[in-house]
Amino acid sequence: MRLKTMLGGKVYAFRSVKEVLAKANEKKSGDELAGLAAKNDSERIAAKEVLSELLVSDLRNHPVVDYDKDDVTRMDQDSVEPAVYHKIKNWSIGELREWLLDYNASEADIKYLSKGLTAEVIAGVTKLMSNLDLIYGASKIRIETTCNTTLGKRGTFSTRLQPNHTVDDVDGITASVYEGLSYGVGDALIGLNPVNDTVSSVREVLKRFDEIKNQLEIPTQQCVLAHITTQMEAVKEGAPTDLFFQSIAGSQKGNEAFGFTTETIEEAADLLERKGTAKGPNRMYFETGQGSELSSMAHHGADQVTMEARCYGYAKKFKPFIVNTVVGFIGPEYLYDSTQVIRAGLEDHFMGKLTGLPMGCDCCYTNHMAAGQNDIENLTMLLAAAGCNYIIGVPASDDVMLNYQTNAFHDAAAVREILGLRPIGEFEAWLEKRGVLERGKLTGRAGDLTIFTGR
Amino acid sequence: MKERELIDIIARKVMAALYGEQEPRKDAPLTDISSAAYKANIKLDQVENPLALDAMRTKTPARIGIGKAGPRLGTKTLLALRADHASAKDAVLKSVDENILKELELFSVQSLCGDIDEHLTRPDLGRRLSEETKLRLQEHCVYGPRVQIYVSDGLSSLAVDENISDLLPVMIDGLEAKGIKTGTPFFVKYGRVPTMDVISEILNAEVTCVLLGERPGLAAAGSMSAYIAYRAAVGMPESRRTVISNIHTKGIQPVEAGAYAVDVIIKILEAKASGVDFKL
């Protein structure tokens, strides 16, 4: 294993695989905050060269968090299929990159190979990819999952309707749901981020979603993104939910900071199989985002791309219906500007897809970042071209509860039309029946939220 | 009459005959594009159920019932969003108005952050003070006050500009009226919430309260919070802070918030505890 290289007459030596992984990252303020980033671009490229010659086995044998200390590492390592791994363990990471991009690597080939990859290998190859590589590579892979409807089919581009409200007023939430539906948004999910993490509030919102969904006969999914233990209590008391949500991290310590353990998720999955309202088999919803481990000091000295890849390695065991990175939510100390947030969005989507996950993206930003709505619209187009399963939609891009901006309800329709994409089939048929969509375009009636008030 | 003018008159007459008279549009009266009135006017005009539309718009601050241009946002919606985002960005990037600090006789110190970029990307430096700054605070401030109140920009300098002239005097006067001596107030540039822990230690304050600008949202760029802790100490859990948030002109009015903060501080002094250890 060679951990040094020469560039411009200077020798760059690294102490560990972990250091190579960190310094090979594209520039991110979060890696700088953690004291892990390359000092300059030359050192960054030197690290990329070293990484390109490391073997798949080198990265597998040096997980960034010890196997004995961390159940995320254990679950990821234990999921590797020995026969697949045996075939590729002596490939260099540079060769793996070229194999993935090669015309000969079909979707089925990539999905097969994926069973032999650990999170560190996936993070490693991502660090060697340009932005267009990430888009091209991801566009080969479609991951389909089924809850009530099937998400992720080639040619579809879906949305989660996020009807958040400053005080969880159920009628106010309903108004935003109608608004979103009237723009053709909500085929992946109608899902609220609640202000009140209480069983009674969660139950009340779920009940309303269930009424709307049944009375309007909407073929979609619903959930409320409270803490998983709150959602479980609500379901035990009879609340109707299709999915359980949880934010996850790339280390056991990070997950503990989120207030759950692997047993919690297993128990939740079991509960939903018995008492959930969806057909399944996919019933979990996970959110991730680069930097969350550092923010809870649970990054174990590893960079934020590698920790993010480990989230996906963890998530896959639970066969989630949807997973998305909330890419720009965390702020400028992790992703400083539009260059960094766009890069992170493309990295996360590619890594998720290569892991085998139904990857979506909350293309978002906060007001103290050096990014704006134009940048997020750019990212949305790039991700749609990459085959991203879904984005988020809120009224006019302004989330009045989370105090950040993401995609407007208006965005998905434009993106679909430009790229020839459609919502999920049953949902599209429903939109046509309701007179909101006609031959892939919004009608004159679209945007009138009052068409649903008669229910 | 020149030939050119004659042609113009004929052309106008012909166009009017064909398409009807078109009066030139008058300039609309000046409205603030960030105002509630401007946003109230951004409304779909043709809907199935106009009464329901009005009712639903009162149920949520979300921008609903706004219509579209093709699949995209209407021009007024787009401009209102950009206006609110501009206010939020400016609130982060601007500096606090020196005149306000002068009027309130607040002297300024700075965290370890050298400029706004460092402040935004290095929260670890924003919560620390240099040895020099610590000495300066010790020289200028009352040592061992029962209550140490100070002001900090945090992520919104606008919050300081808009709220502090009302908020700070109400708090100091309110506490003094109850016979509680407050320490010497000052301003910390590029501060974070945990900076209060360092300040509590070096000034040996029983209760420390920082009035700090919050991350701006589109609804309110100048929102302030009061973080209050009993015997704040570096490295203490976040859960030991009591927070009064949403202090701004469209939220809890600063005068009202100041009076409330006085009550809370008095109860914290009595309980000798804050945060989750303290029930209001």
Question: What is this structure's SSE topology?
Answer:
The complex is a heterodimer of chains A (455) and B (280).
Chain A: E1 4-7, E2 10-13, H1 17-23, H2 29-33, H3 41-53, H4 56-61, H5 71-78, H6 82-88, H7 93-101, H8 107-114, H9 119-127, H10 131-139, E3 145-146, E4 150-151, E5 158-161, H11 170-181, E6 189-192, H12 199-215, E7 222-224, H13 228-236, E8 244-247, H14 252-257, H15 262-275, E9 284-288, H16 292-295, H17 304-315, E10 322-326, H18 338-355, E11 359-362, H19 373-386, E12 390-393, E13 398-399, E14 404-405, H20 409-419, H21 425-433, E15 437-438, E16 441-442
Parallel strand pairs in A: 5-6, 5-12, 6-7, 8-9, 9-10, 10-11
Antiparallel strand pairs in A: 1-2, 3-4, 13-14, 15-16
Helix pairs in contact in A: 1-3, 5-17, 7-9, 9-17, 9-18, 10-18, 10-19, 12-13, 13-15, 17-18, 18-19, 19-20
Chain B: H1 3-19, H2 36-40, H3 50-59, H4 75-93, H5 98-103, E1 107-110, H6 116-121, H7 123-126, H8 131-140, E2 147-152, H9 157-177, E3 186-189, H10 195-203, E4 207-213, E5 224-230, E6 242-247, H11 254-271
Parallel strand pairs in B: 1-3, 2-3, 2-4
Antiparallel strand pairs in B: 4-5, 5-6
Explain what the structure shows:
The complex is a heterodimer of chains A (455) and B (280). Chain A contains 21 helices and 16 strands. Helix content of chain A is 45%, strand content 12%. Chain A folds into two domains: 4-139, Annexin V, domain 1, CATH 1.10.220.70; 145-452, TIM Barrel. In chain A, helix 12 (199-215) packs across helix 13. The mean pLDDT of chain A is 97. By secondary structure, chain A is of the alpha/beta class. Chain A has a four-stranded parallel β-sheet, with helices on one face. With 280 residues, chain B is an alpha/beta fold. Chain B folds into two domains: 27-67, no CATH class; 95-277, 3-Layer(aba) Sandwich (Rossmann fold). In chain B, strands 1-3-2-4-5-6 form a six-stranded mixed β-sheet, sandwiched between helices. In chain B, helix 9 links the parallel strand 2 (147-152) and strand 3. In chain B, helix 9 crosses helix 11 (254-271). Chain B is elongated. Classes of the chains: A alpha/beta (455), B alpha/beta (280). At the A-B interface, helix 2, helix 11, strand 14, helix 20 and strand 16 of A face helix 3 and helix 4 of B.
